[in-house]
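Recap quiz, item 2
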Amino acid sequence: MLTDSDLTALLITLKLAALTTLILLLIGTPLAWWLARSRWRFKFLIEAVIALPLVLPPTVLGFYLLIALGPNGPIGGLMQSLGGQPLAFTFTGLVIGSVFYSMPFVVQPLQSAFNAIGNRPMEVAATLGASPLDRFFSVAVPLARPGFLTASVLGFAHTIGEFGVVLMIGGNIPGQTQVLSIAIYDHVEILEYSQAHWLSGGLLILSFLMLISVYALNRRFSLVSP
Amino acid sequence: MTIEARFKIKRHDFTLDVELSIPDHGVTAIYGDSGCGKTTLLRAIAGLEYSQDAYLRVGHSLWQDGAFFIPPEKRSLGYVFQEASLFAHLNVRRNLEYGLKRVPQNDCKVSLERAIDLLGISHLLERSTEQLSGGERQRVAIARALATSPRILLMDEPLSALDLKRKQEIMPYLESLHDELKIPVLYVSHAPGEVARLADHLILLEDGKLKASGELDNMLTRLDLPLAHGDKAAALIHATVAGHDNEFNLTYLDFPGGRFSVAHKDLPVNHKVRLRVIARDVSLTLEHQSHTSILNIFPATVEEMTPEGTAQVMVRLLIQGVPLLARITRKSASILALEPGKQVFAQVKSVALLS
């Protein structure tokens, strides 16, 4: 069965995934809205940057984040000069890394959901007296509901599954930065296959359930609203 | 009190450049071929198209003047789009309430109940928008626009996305809007039939420019405009039901130039109707024919005539000031020696009741 350190790793993983998803929804929603609406000529540059984690090996991303967040890096250095700690090998550092790493999984579904709504419902809302912010929350967000569901679950699940980035910037400090995927790796390293089985099987079922619920719910949404 | 508008809007392959004055009452049709800028003009009035080179005043309130621009949500208007565009995440009632909640309550002159009543949608309120037919969706969209008690109602070809059956289903509601509403309605259309049934005034656009504007019955018969030419050229006559003849089963319709007798229509006396008289159904004689099967004969004055193709002539007549079109052959015109000012008798072979 699960040991205490396994349980701690599970909790850290869930906390990391929840926090990352929340932050990504907060910054990803306006970003996706802007990407869906803007006619700026160089928009594609931003889109490419957001999509980078899809193609980069996580270790590459993790390596650059490690440098940036470390005491000599721009962000870590800034933190230190403000009297704080460098962010490498901390939980905060993990959250920052995960936000970058899972960004496309949140932004892209939201962007396509906003694209699919089109401009017409927003114009209708405007002629009915709704201000831009009002119509965003009363029309765009409810109509993009399937996109929000997909974005949340993909962001959450993808963060749970990350390994390379965490290994590079979080290290493997039990109780602080050790997440589930790394705990499994450790178990296998020292041939604790039954522990690895428990954790891997649990993760497999959890991921599968989450994806099932996304697809099932999105199917229901699409039946209700075209 | 009128609506004064001037817009110069450049889009990549098209320029709208108009200056016009729109009556503050009745239905004004914005008419023209597709691509002439009708929808762009309507959208500009709503504030959905922006350009610096514009001026718009609705009654006493200035909506746009150069850089001064009131955004659409602050303009007191109702807008009905080509497709109903109901909010899919709200049911019918909440669609109707969406705009209502967002206007100051003391501005509510048309109550929600009245809008629901006018469009006959009270039985649909709890439905989801998915469960509505195309015609019902458009009726809900119109009621939703009216529920905000707008100062002006803008409609962009509200029937064009519907099939003939749905059009006929929704037409009576539009006609009752025309009779009941006190606010001006701008109605974009490229269907002459809709315009003839609904409009009082007409704005004719061509290639982004104002070609002409004025009262509908006058515009339809102006020989310098395309409307008064071709097979479908027809005059519009406003008449009232004067009575019925039970012996021959006829209905009498009075207009300022006289009385039409038509096959019996089940309409109350004093009911207002619109008559459409197609130009090719009108023939001309110099003397009043008494030995004829034609019942509707009126003394008229030739006002103007232009060639119609190589063999025909379109004649604009006035019957006590009411314009009428007659399309006759060039040969007949020559035999009758027609010229402006000549007194003739117009024989109307058939009349269509529009409402």
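Chain B is about 20% helix and 40% strand.
Chain B has two domains: 2-220, 235-353.
End of item.
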